[in-house]
## 1
Amino acid sequence: MASSVPLTPKGSFPRYLEHLSGSGKAIGVLTSGGDAQGMNAAVRAVVRMGIYVGAKVYFIYEGYQGMVDGGSNIVEAKWESVSSILQVGGTIIGSARCKAFHTREGRLQAAANLVQWGITNLCVIGGDGSLTGANIFRKEWSELLVELAKNGKISEEAVTKYSYLNVVGMVGSIDNDFCGTDMTIGTDSALHRIMEVIDAIMTTAQSHQRTFVLEVMGRHCGYLALVSALACGADWVFLPESPPEEGWEENMCVKLSENRARKKRLNIIIVAEGAIDTQNQPISSQKIKDLVVKQLGFDTRVTILGHVQRGGTPSAFDRILASRMGVEAVVALLEATPETPACVVSLSGNQAVRLPLVECVQMTQDVQKAMDERRFKDAVRLRGRSFEGNLNIYKRLAIKLPDDQITKSNCSVAVINVGAPAAGMNAAVRSAVRVGIADGHKMLAIYDGFDGFAKGQIKEIGWSDVGGWTGQGGSILGTKRVLPGKFLEEIAEQIRAHSINALLIIGGFEAYLGLLELSAAREKYEELCIPMVMVPATVSNNVPGSDFSIGSDTALNTITDTCDRIKQSASGTKRRVFIIETMGGYCGYLANMGGLAAGADAAYIFEEPFDIRDLQSNVEHLTEKMKTSIQRGLVLRNESCSENYTTDFIYQLYSEEGKGVFDCRKNVLGHMQQGGVPSPFDRNFGTKISARAMQWITTKLKESYGKGKKCVSDDYICVLGISKRNVIFQPVADLKEETDFEHRIPKEQWWLKLRPLMKILAKYKASFDVSDSGQLEPVQDQNTQGEPAAI
Ligand code: ATP
């Protein structure tokens, strides 16, 4: 953390960032259209990054209306103006729909107001309508200025001085209806709200044997409905992009009664608010309820979620996404030239990218056109690969084909959980079991990890056995840290006894080590020469071969939530610094990303060595901070970041050095990070990655079938991971090179590039290759983009 020194005073801009100097520039930031959780994090990042690079940043209150009205609607933002807003839903600068901005007169007035403040850089956070408006404004800008000069509203010099307007958009919308980004700001939080309601409803519905019809938002986009259906294992889902086939009324009722016959006590039907049939006629939740009551006589209730979905605190993902996008937006504005087209900053895989705004808006409108013209297949395709993938998996997992329609493979595939529990493991097992059964395999569950494997704790597991597993935390199969090395003989014996043809391992670093041991033992034990694949599941996110692992998003949300509460606990007690220890072993992912999401002042991690000078500099930073209106500090410390600078040590050091200025409290979060119900992301990630793993197993089994030889080559024993935009299977043996075995982390970790971002937003000077993307990318065919959602 050598670069963690307080921000340089005005005028002494660090040399390495000179090309990004915002000195003399003014940036206006506004939120427009419907609000979404995470907009505040985006505003905060724009303000802080703008001030950091030496620009002036102005809030434009009430969207375009404030721009048209001017006056007190345009106010310079200070560093402190955006403190304590990360955790707040909605937008503190207000959002509105503005008729006047649709007219040239309105835009003329808006231009006059911007010129008055010298604002020639605009950062718009909103949906496609808002971004379209911004682009029109940008194109007209020079003409508007000429007209204003002609009317005597501005000087001729002003026309030259402010000759062009730079525009950058960020998509804030809970609907995730914008082409070009994997996730819009607010979508993940909306999914959190929906899942909270569904989880609550499931408990009451279980008690009474009820059918629930749940209507979720999304206007003409079915993303929220589809992903919620996937995350809760809904019986049926209605989407605008993929209307049900004719005769759906009958099919749905058959499906519901079949599920009841399988002793399923509740049915969940999810309806997107814009759901339609193949004739473009709306399908309302009431209509569905009436149908179920009439045809089946089931006790059926309708719940329309409404604005609950827009409310509440933003999820960790939305805070991080919005912070990244906000910083990227400022960089894009600083790098823009008169020739640069307006762009949107968005997310592709785990990378920030800049895309041409006009093309993205066009593609977004094309989806609607396709639906209007009843070209539903096109609509699904245009929504993107991830949407299509979600839909296919939903269909596979929700509907069990009759046994006589499944071609038996005569293969047995076993599933095992290894290591510490991680939220989402059960969703992964459910998905594997169902996909495996649909592929004709006999599915076997191994209980209690490798220990149970050696002891023969193996049982066949069926379609209904895994019903309702998506929302359950921990590991229902049972999981242990024990490695297979000392039981190889016994495990080989069990494989033979149960005729296991392939193995799916769901777990963390122990699972990875276990897979390596099994790989190495294949020469000695022929039984081990079967396809084996591991999907990463650990809160620590430290498995080589994957950028993400199941469970870490849930843990991150727990950390973020707890930090919010802890910060709030000091609202009446001024001048307090909290030191919070997170899990992760040597991997600093949780501390770093938790720090970013919770707005920490520092996050100590093993990967970035620090010394007493850094600690001293942080104390000075906090001392300075106590002189401002923000008299609160938050410092995260990864549990193994340093052998000697322990949490107690840091607490004592801060307490001593901060005497008279601030006092300290420490919290060790511990196992609460491993528990809890899985987040929507972990449910879906677990579901999709595991389905992908089973698909691989089926292919490998077919490949080797009848060849009479065992699967000895390394590509039969793989880790399945996500890397940038791609899903990749890597032979476990190849990953050895990439692993720091002593510290149980991958040698390269993508998230380290976000370290400077947290420091900048906490007012530290940091050397920052700020931009993930650094340049405008052409809009990609949605079919070629988007991981991890696109598994
Ligand atoms: P949401 O996804 O929440 O609906 P949105 O940005 O699409 O967000 P809109 O109501 O379409 O919401 O647009 C918000 C505001 O942006 C409008 O009230 C208007 O001021 C401005 N705007 C939208 N479209 C245009 C346009 N074609 N020309 C000028 N201004 C526009």
Note: Residues 32-34, 64, 97-98, 101-102, 126-130, 132-133, 136, 173 surround adenosine-5'-triphosphate (CB under 6 Å).
## 2
Amino acid sequence: MDILVIGGGGREHAIVWALSKSPKAGKIYCAPGNAGIAQLAECVPVAVGEFEKLKSFALEKEVGLVVVGPDDPLADGIVDVFEEAGIPVFGPRKNAAEIEGSKTFMKDLLRKYNIPTAAYEKFDDFDQALAYLRSRQAPIVIKADGLAAGKGVTVARTLEEAEQALRDIMETKVFGEAGSRVVIEEFLEGQEMSILAFVDGETVKPMSAAQDHKPVFDGDLGPNTGGMGTYSPLPHIPASVIEEAVEKIIKPTAKAMVAEGRPFRGVLFAGLMITPDGKPKTIEFNARFGDPETQVVLPRLKTDLLEVFLAAVNGNLDELELEWSEEAAVCVILASGGYPASYPKGLAIAGLEADDDSSIVFHAGTSRGSGGEWLTNGGRVLGVVGLGADIAAARAKAYERAERISFEGKHFRTDIAAKALL
Ligand code: AMP
Ligand code: GLY
């Protein structure tokens, strides 16, 4: 079966890599893909927002499945476009993707169905928001309602900082229309974890849990990024906490979406805080695979990913059991100098050669020069994944490989997965 994967980051490289292992997979196309993905798939130079072109391409090539990676096209209804054309597609429809696209929708849903999340109020009037804020205490969290490329959240340490965030979002409109509403939310203390699950209506098949590292520098310092590294599984988190998150948060949310007439099909990704009393609470839901969570979760999935996608699309995910490798995976992101602010592109990358099969390099932002040489082409350039018997071994492998790759300005966090080893 021929497949079209939509997206062009490290997450999509990991999806294409896992699909390419399936005996059922025929030709894999990726739009737009990247230079790393081009080693496994035919990259198609069409942007993720060009729905009509993508649809025509899928029809012309008679692909048997489309898989959508990023959030923006999902929020804009790309799945509805493929479904209307009769093309099997893995991902949530627009009305289900709203669980990520609108924080007020998500918060109201969780409140209505009594699903654990931080207490909150929502506002579409600046003065009312400000008055409410001034009646609260710091730390406090301010969130733009809509998609803001992962930058719409401010965890404010002081009320002044919170007020500034509110002004930026609602008055200056730094995120445009995404900031016409805000959520002001209780600050949750604790340890974060991500649980991604394959979901098909009420059927939920959780993936092995992962942890991301969002701030750019060691010790969680500096501005937030798309994610600087991940690891899976989480040996220091009790299995009972993970189970509680699945039973009390993810399954009830999938059920609530069905009850609301918005059945979710795709990957439901819960960002959770394990509060000091050991209870998980929802921070956010995403309607897609995480990046770079996917890079550590999929290499550990023993079940054929294509079978999982097809089961979800055909509505028989309940008949499938997911099998996980005992191995651990650690992903270290190598970023361009300056990221997450501005950074140069087109710098030569050396040392990409593989030594053995205990590491994988997923490309996020690379291209090839006229002589075939590897060049940087993004903020997050590469995700170096180490595999090993446990987190310590996987981490050692990831860092050993990360050190061998070089490009001018390369930077990465040196404390990925350190928490798991304390
Ligand atoms: P988001 O963009 O929604 O993933 O939020 C970005 C980050 O902000 C999360 O990964 C958390 O670290 C932090 N965050 C969001 N909401 C809260 C909250 N209610 N309490 C504490 N931290 C939060
Ligand atoms: N790594 C976080 C995300 O994909 O949203």
Note: The mean pLDDT is 95.
